[in-house]
Design a protein that fits this description.
The complex is a heterodimer of chains A (323) and B (295). With 323 residues, chain A is mainly alpha-helical. Chain A has one domain: Orthogonal Bundle (ABC transporter involved in vitamin B12 uptake, BtuC). Chain A has 13 helices and four strands. Chain A has a two-stranded antiparallel sheet with strand order 1-4. In chain A, strand 2 and strand 3 form a beta hairpin. Chain B is an alpha/beta fold and 295 residues long. Chain B folds into two domains: 125 residues, Response regulator (Rossmann fold), CATH 3.40.50; 131 residues, 3-Layer(aba) Sandwich (Rossmann fold), CATH 3.40.50. Chain B is built from ten helices and twelve strands. In chain B, strand 1, helix 2 and strand 2 form a beta-alpha-beta unit. The N and C termini of chain B lie far apart (69 Å). Classes of the chains: A mainly alpha (323), B alpha/beta (295). Chains A and B meet through helix 1, helix 2 and helix 12 of A and helix 1, strand 2 and helix 3 of B.
């Protein structure tokens, strides 16, 4: 099992060095991309565009925070794109009861869908890949039932403010990403819950012998992933003024890419929220940067795939050198 | 170059470019897909016309994803385009993207699909109602003014509803033609199933109108497999190459209403150029479709 540097015990100077050691490869990739895009288009490095990128990457970043937990356990959640869509639809329909009830109902729906994934995986001992492929279809089907596939429009000013409003000069949507990043980062790096997740993902047997209730942990983490996807769904429906039944289609793959780009191991036990945030930023910077350079859409797909391969290779190589 | 140096270079650039004002960059076009022949022809026509007029044009493909369309439009806004041409992924949901552009003072033109709940500078799209009337008149003619007709529709799409309304209007001139069935078949597979069901329930059907090429081509297959190829005549709408070839070679396919994506793309770019020049443009620019029959 690869050791993760412990930021708590490190002194300030060491902490920066530890950060550079851990994220150097992936940070370098992000900086390189920014340098290239800045050199090619003067408008890339503007405050307006950087805010733009952060807003555009918010949905995937938050979904990726949840995905990171699941991957840390050595599991996978392919249903989050569908959960994003269901959450938007639940929110749009529940807004009839008012803003706060709609918010709570949406988060509860996300938790429920995540918990179902967790229970099926933990209690029925089914592989999470299969469970979440199945629930991906089930949730995607459910979202279309209330409106027969049509979008549900949203007019509630409070709901729309989530995606369009600003607080202290920064878009609210960016604040939400920051708050959830700090929340997930602390939960993962400074609590028993986080340590148990690392231990279980790294060595399930050892975790069982040390008395960790692996089943409960699994259900809790899938539930957390569902809640994160629900928040992502709220942001997306707010940005789009509507709940679209095909919303979030294949976003689970972007979330996995963000986590893996950030150094999360698909085998479990290795990964951090900082890495995932950087990974999500790389995806956002690429999408936006290539748009700014007017790269034709089909070439964008090819370049994105290649950049993911190169970035992960850089990171793996950097870690091997250190070892 | 060390990371620190690279970072400080970046920060300097941020500081320098933060204040730079937007300047003219031409047209940004956000099209909903590049996987349908109609949109490929539309995009090609726009590129050709932009080149002829010497105006910069950039095309983003939303790939049927409203969130990508919004991001594409946001990127156009940052780049400082003068006019945005958009074919909405969703005629209601795209209002978010359009509102953002208009808030920055950028004029918006919709092409092919109108926006339901916002005002745009101009809309360029097929005159679906007139096309439907032409389909009805053609049906009346090929059936010699009598018979039983079935319709394959797609009721949640406004442009299709207009086609069906027009078709019924065109048939009013033929009182001996009766519409005996109207069912929904959105994809080719669904259209095939509903055509088979309708022919099963009403074997005396002599004409079928499909709201699109796919629906019409599926209806022709259904008529053949029911052994009714000598009795049933099918008319479609869209007029892409596959359907035109079917009209030429398949006796069941008697005609197709042909949309003109080339003209639509050319008009969109011409309108955008006029808007940049400060001219007033018509709010609605319907493109009347043609009738394609056997050569």
């Amino acid at each position: 099992m690869t050791q993760t540097p412990d930021p708590i015990t490190a002194s300030q100077g060491h902490r920066l060095r530890a950060l550079m050691l851990q994220y150097g490869g992936i940070l370098l990739a992000l900086v390189l991309l920014c340098v290239i895009f800045t050199a090619l288009n003067g408008r890339f490095m503007t405050v307006a565009n950087l805010t733009n990128i952060l807003q555009q990457v918010a949905v995937v970043a938050i979904a990726a925070f949840g995905m990171t937990w699941v991957i840390l356990l050595g599991e996978i959640d392919l249903s989050i794109g569908s959960i994003i869509a269901v959450a938007g639809m639940v929110g749009a329909l529940a807004l009839g009861f008012g803003f706060v009830p709609a918010l709570l109902l949406t988060l509860a729906a996300g938790a429920l869908m995540g918990a179902i994934n967790g229970v099926l995986t933990a209690k029925l001992m089914l592989p999470s890949f299969i469970v979440t492929v199945a629930t991906m279809g089930i949730y995607r089907g459910l979202v279309s039932l209330p409106t027969n596939g049509a979008p549900a429009m949203i007019a509630d000013p409070a709901w729309l403010a989530i995606g369009a409003g600003t607080f202290l000069g920064l878009p609210i949507i960016i604040w939400i990403v920051l708050v959830l990043f700090v929340f997930n980062h602390i939960l993962l790096s400074r609590t028993t819950f986080g340590r148990r997740t690392y231990l279980t993902g790294g060595n399930r047997e050892a975790a069982l012998y040390s008395g960790i209730k692996v089943d409960r942990l699994k259900i809790a983490i899938f539930t957390l992933s569902g809640v994160m996807a629900a928040v992502a769904g709220i942001l997306l429906s707010s940005r789009l003024y509507s709940a679209q039944t095909n919303a979030g289609m294949s976003y689970e793959l972007d979330a996995i890419a963000a986590a893996v780009l950030g150094g999360t191991s698909l085998a479990g036990g290795v990964g951090t929220m900082v890495g995932t945030l950087i990974g999500a930023l790389i995806i956002g910077v690429m999408n936006n940067g290539m748009n700014m350079l007017s790269v034709p859409y089909f070439y964008q797909l090819i370049v994105k795939g290649l950049v993911i391969l190169i970035a992960v290779w850089l990171d793996v190589r950097a870690k091997q050198r250190r070892a | 170059m060390s990371l620190k140096k690279a970072l400080s270079a970046l920060l300097t650039t941020v500081a320098l470019s933060a204040g730079s004002a937007a300047f003219a960059e031409g047209i940004g076009a956000s099209l909903l897909t590049q996987q349908h022949p109609f949109y490929i022809e539309l995009a090609d026509a726009m590129k050709a016309e932009a080149e002829a007029k010497g105006v910069p044009l950039e095309i983003s493909i939303a790939n049927q994803d409203l969130n990508k369309q919004l991001a594409d439009v946001e990127d156009f806004i940052v780049k400082g385009v003068d006019v945005i041409v958009i074919s909405p992924v969703d005629s209601q949901g795209a209002v978010a993207a359009i509102a953002k552009a208009q808030a920055q003072g950028i004029k918006v033109i919709t092409v092919d699909i109108p926006i339901a709940n916002a005002e745009v500078t101009s809309h360029i799209g097929t005159d679906n109602y007139t096309g439907g009337v032409k389909a009805g008149e053609l049906m009346g003619k090929v059936l010699d003014g009598k018979g039983k007709v079935a319709i394959i529709d797609y009721p949640t799409v406004q442009s299709v509803v207009a086609r069906i309304d027009g078709f019924k209007k065109g048939l009013e001139a033929f009182p001996d033609i009766e519409i005996v069935a109207q069912q929904t078949g959105i994809t080719r597979a669904e259209a095939l199933a509903v055509s088979q069901n309708m022919l099963q329930a009403n074997p005396e059907i002599t004409g079928i109108f499909g709201f699109g090429d796919d629906a019409a081509l599926a209806a022709a297959v259904a008529a053949k497999s029911a052994g009714l190829q000598d009795q049933v005549k099918v008319i479609g709408f869209d007029g892409m190459e596959e359907a035109r070839n079917a009209v030429d070679s398949d006796p069941i396919m008697v005609g197709v209403i042909q949309q003109y994506p080339q003209e639509m793309g050319k008009t969109a770019v011409d309108t955008a150029v006029d808007v940049i020049a400060g001219k007033t443009v018509p709010a609605e620019q319907p493109i009347v479709p043609g009738v394609y029959v056997k050569k």
